[in-house]
Amino acid sequence: LSGLDPAQPYFQGTPTEVRLDKSDAEFVDVIHTDSAPTIPNLGFGIRPAIGHIDFYPNGGEEMPGCGKNPVSQIIDLDGIWEGTRDFVACNHLRSYKYYSDSIIYPDGFLGYPCASYDLFESGNCFPCPADGCPNMGHYAYKFKDKFKSDFVKLYLNTGETRDFPLWRYKVTVTLSGSKKVKGYVNVALYGSDGNTRQYQITEGTLKPDNTYTAYIDAEVNVGEITKVKFLWNNNWINLTFPKLGAANITVEVGETR
Fold first, then answer.
1. 1-165 fold
2. 139-148, long-range: CB < 8 A, 24+ apart
3. Which of 9, 38, 59, 254 shows a CA-CA span of 20 to 30 A to 193?
4. For 140-156, how does the pLDDT look when each residue is reduced to its tens digit (9 = 90+)?
5. Separation CA 199–CA 136 (nearest Å)
6. 91-126 in b/e burial notation, b at 16+ Cβ within 10 A?
7. pTM for the full predicted model
8. In CATH, 167-253 is 2.60.60.20
């Protein structure tokens, strides 16, 4: 039984007979997309974990792409009716859109077991456990017997628009060069199944021999990594023409460790 942002008003805090609960089926998975408090945030979705596994994409409160200005959201690619509906309840309705996307992406929407979204964002819960990460949505049932604890909270990030799934990588770059410089470092991943756009690893003072780490949520699962593209740039004209290189780049895949 899959709960798509189960309702908060009139249901949160009520007995289990009244609302969705893990006792309702052999396996209950829940997607929380609008779990901010109803007052004053107008959150429509229930906040506590209530299933065998509970997914909190983007933290479970504010979904990317739902902060568009009203005109651009109402005059939507999916039509004015869909756009108007999204404007009123965009976060709440993301749950079924994630679910429908999950059907065509069996390897997507990996949920990382974590105590909080902040810890997930900072990389504390990376990579996936040895048993793997459950897939939010249609294929969550594959993890029916994997978790034995009372409640399991799972976190992940999604894209702003279709297609919504993202794949998480840890990228570590050690710089080489003769002197420090201000600027930024970008990295793009290439693999057997595609390549990503450029992602910023760090910005500010770049010091040779220093190591910089970033967690990137890529728009494509690149498969087996074949190449890493490294780019750096300084923020303003420097007449000394500084040079920087990558002494070492390590990429760790969240799913396969």
1. Rossmann fold (3.40.50)
2. 139/102, 139/106, 140/2, 140/29, 140/53, 140/55, 141/27, 141/29, 143/53, 144/26, 144/27, 144/52, 147/52, 147/53, 147/113
3. 59
4. 999 998 877 778 999 99
5. 24
6. bbbbbebbbebbeebeebbbbbbbeebeebeeeebb
7. 0.90
8. yes
